Amino acid sequence: MWLYSPVMMCCRMQTSGMMMFASRPPPDADSAVRSTDSDAAQARLSAVRKGYLADPYVNLLVPRSHLVPARPPLINIGTYVRSEALDALVEGWLEAGDGVKQVVSLGAGSDTRFWRIMAGPLKDRVSQYVELDFPEITTHKAQAIRKHKELHSILGPDVKLEKGGTALISPQYSLLPVDLRIAPSESLAPLLDSLSPHIPTLFLAECVLVYMPPSASNALLQWFSDNFDCVGGICYEMFGLEDRFGQVMRENLKARNVSLPGADAYPTLASHTARFQNHAFAHANALTLKTIRQSYISPAELERISRLEMLDEIEELELVLDHYAISWGAKLPPDSEAGDLARVVGDLRGWGLAAKT
Ligand SMILES: C[S@@+](CC[C@H](N)C(=O)[O-])C[C@H]1O[C@@H](n2cnc3c(N)ncnc32)[C@H](O)[C@@H]1O
Fold this sequence. Notes:
alpha/beta; about 45% helix; Rossmann fold; S-adenosyl-L-methionine; protein C-terminal leucine carboxyl O-methyltransferase activity; EC 2.1.1.233
C-alpha cells in the first residue's frame, strides 16, 4: 500500500470494500494489515501495465491479476517515484565496494525485487536474500513461486518448502514466516544460521514499520546494528500525519481496521533520520517522494511518464507525495576497508539516482 489520498479511498470504498464490510464481520487487525500487501502489489501492477515501470514478475504474484483495475494516475506516479528511488538505493548498496552482500526484506509481501535483481547485472552481488512476513503472506507467496516457472527457475533445483508450507528455502533465497513485533532476539534468531555477520547486509522496510509500535521497530533496527559489522537499512512510509491530510488518511484506514501505531513517533524527516542514528547507523538521510520527484528524477523520465496519462492535479500529487518518506542509514566498520560504502551513503545521488542539475 502506499497512497491514501481521499481520491483513492473514495474509489476503494465504492468498490469491494463497502460490500465486504456489509456482509462479513470486520477482519481482525492483523488480517487488515496483511491486506495492505494486495494494495501495494496491485498498485505496482497498475504502474507496470501503464508503462511507468518494467516488472515481468508482479502479475505472477497478484491473484486474478487480469481483474485488477487500473489505478488513478496520481497513484501510478507515486508508485513509480517510490519504486525508482528504492531501486536506486538498493542497487547503490549492492554495487558499492567489492564482494557480495546480504539483503533482508522485512514485511516483503509480494515484492518482486529479488527476481528483478536476479535478472540483472547485480545478481552475482547477492549472497543471500531473505524475505519475512506473516505466515499467511509467506504461504501464498511460496505457492506462487512453486507454481510459476519464471519464479522458481531462478532459485535453482534445490528448493524446499518447510514449516508446513509457510517457509521456502533455497541456496540463495529464503522466505520465512515471522511476526516482526516479536522480540528479534527470538524471531530473527534463525537468520543468523544462514547470514554471515561479516558480509555487508541491507535491510529493507518498505511500508512496514509504520504498522507496528515504535518499540518493536526500534528493536529491529537495534538487532541489525548489533548483529552485523557493516549494515545498511532503507525505510519507506507515510509521515507527517498531524494535518488534515493525515487525519483523512487515518480515518480511511480505520474504516478498514488498519491503524498506524508507528506514525506518531516519526512525524518529520529529521525524526526519520534520527531513527537510524539512534541505532548507530551514523550515515543517515531522509527525503520525501515530493523532493525525489522534483529533484532526482531526470527531465527525460518526467517527460516520458507525463505522456503516459493525463494528470490534472499536480497540487494534489505534491500534497500526497509530501506525506511519504524514504529514509536510509548505514553503520560501517570503523577501519574503512568499507570506504566505498562510506562514499555511497551520503545521499540518494551517491546511491545511484542522480540529482537533476
Ligand atoms: C504495505 S505492505 C508492503 C509490502 C512490500 N514491502 C511492498 O512494499 O510491496 C506491508 C507488509 O508488511 C507486512 N507486515 C506488517 N506488519 C508485520 C508484522 N508485524 N510481521 C510481519 N509482517 C508484517 C504485511 O503483512 C504486508 O505484507
